[in-house]
Input
Amino acid sequence: MLRKILTTITLLSLLAGCATGRRTGGETDTAEPNQESPASQAQTAWSVPPKIGIILGPGGMKSFAHIGVLRELESARIPINMIAGMEWGALVAGTYSLKRKANDVEWKLFKIPKDILPRKEFMGHRTEPTSMNDFTPFLENTFGSMNITDGEIPFICPTKSLTKYASLIFQRNKYVDALQLCLPFPPLFKPYQNWVANPYSVKALSDALKKAGMDYVILVNVTPGIQRLNDDASAAEFILWNHVMDEMNEGKNYVNYVIDVNIQDKSVLDFDSRREFISIGQQYGKIAAQRLARILGF
Output
């Protein structure tokens, strides 16, 4: 128990360090579920369709909502040319990059066995995070030995070391190797070989997408409000996830468009609500797709 608390506090301090020096200012999202960021307001017409990069934010099981958003973008014929993801959003993004089909993502991720996800400790009162060693067989069955450059579209994801003040963004390597380091984050996963997901990476990911030739960057945020965790979550975990919320809210300063998907009343561990999350994502995605089609000329 003490080790778990100390690990979470260490993670909090390391990731909070990533937040220093960030740009501030810009609009505040209020009643509108989707918003055009300050960076894109000066350009709302395109002579040719832009290349679009998308960042799928963290959110644990709420990240199933990303599938609904992607499905609506597909329906509106808005092509995604490159995709990035943080924490569980990295799993959705990586799976989407394989075939660029939201239905394929849903089909593959619904094969995740529930018994390898976080669960109550035996004869205890705390939820036990999943070991990446237990989750790796699912990754291997889904991605095999494919390299992340072999998908239909390029995929990238960020990670951070707990023992070194070092962060990196995977742009090569095998899908399995990348996701083993880009997924772990409390309370869902234990660190893997002292590496964890880095949710303080909106600017870095946006910069990487633009460097790769993307003209327009979209951020999908499934954590736009105070986050609900499991009832036995520690204070450090609550603080950690609310720092994540702050980072996502500030992310609009670094991208062209933000899609906020409000699922505040559900826990990041609520695997049983994954179909509902997809449906909610579609509701917000449909509104966003209509606006983006108009802005981008699709």
Q: What stands out?
A: Residues 1-10, 12-16, 18-31, 38-43 have pLDDT under 50 and may be disordered.
